[in-house]
Amino acid sequence: MRDYDSEEPAMYALVVRFDLKDDASAAGFDQLVKETGEGIARDEPGTLVYATHRVDGSPLARVFYEVYRDREAFEEHERQPHTLRFLAERDQFIAATRVEFLAPATSKGLPADG
Length: 114
Known about the structure:
114 residues; alpha+beta; 4 strands; globular; ABM_dom
């Protein structure tokens, strides 16, 4: 079990929900996400999971689940040109956003936390 007060770096994770304005905004947002994801896959070894989801029953909702090796990897993600482009262009498509930062505890498929 991880001691969250220790000095060792911990995984850094978040969930983001985007509610989009309309169908045209959803199409534009999805294209922007596709292009951003290509850069993440290519250039971000510290990004462990970057999963985007549509929400059943809510065609204008998208949920992102992101896991980074540590806070530094998240900050590096935020500095990447593809992420800066996403952050600059996303607002034209979005009606609302909700971000929740997580403290990973138990998991399957993520690196063991010792």
